[in-house]
Amino acid sequence: MYDSDYEYDVLGVLRLLRFVQMYRPQRAAHLVSGETAFSVEEVLEFLYYSMEEIFDDCYSDYDEMNGSEILYIYDSIFDEYLDLSVRLSDSHLCSVQAARRRFEDVVTYFLADRNCGIFDVTIHYNDSSPQIQVEFAEGYYEPAGVVMAFTDLMHYLYREVDRMNRIIEKRSGKIVSLMQKHLEEAA
Amino acid sequence: MLKFSPEIFTELLHAIPEAIPYCEEPQHSEYLQKEVFDKLGKGETIDLTKLDLNAFDLCHTALSWSGDHYAGMERSWQKGFNKMLKLIQASAREKRAFF
To answer: pTM of the prediction?
Structure first.
């Protein structure tokens, strides 16, 4: 699209910056501070060290047994998404377990089969808060592809949370107006 | 727990969920072409602190083949879902979950 040899990796950088600007604007300035002479040689390093800015909390560990790197991810949007899924599904008899399965499907949909080095994705629940554990394949890792996958997932979750909030607001507004109507009729 | 409302219940039955695409349609950005890709192509460097992050959107940073990737994912998930449905025992199909 941009007729550049570095298009894939540079788009990863730009997508990361735009995402942070949209959802975490206070971090955007910090992310680019000092990057006054950014060249193509720095792209991969920048992506590798900056992708943690996509999430509230993100840290990595090295699995010596399998020789692979594992990324542990948490973000408050995960809790919000689960909470709203359950609230919105009251009338459909949706349980917490069903909402969790749905969340796991969403995460798998966006992170699996990306051909960017993501080997395995698992979700653990600490005090009902989900934490995503991403294991990378040994010796193969594409930061740009990983950033694309993470931003796609987070962008989808933000939009879904917004959509569910709007439905809940609309529904509560209707209930209030119905109750007012009943009260007026009774009076 | 919300109070049961027949009006809202009926409306929900007829409501079509809002379709949200999994990824935005990739679009070209003149700003990125000129300020980023053309400069990098000439071997120049970019001052990221001066890059206007509001001058472009996520759709301008989407890969041209990302839509194909998600379409492929959808097809394979639908195949898996159909396979699961075929494995459901005939007796279970008689049960009604909601009505």
So the answer is: 0.84
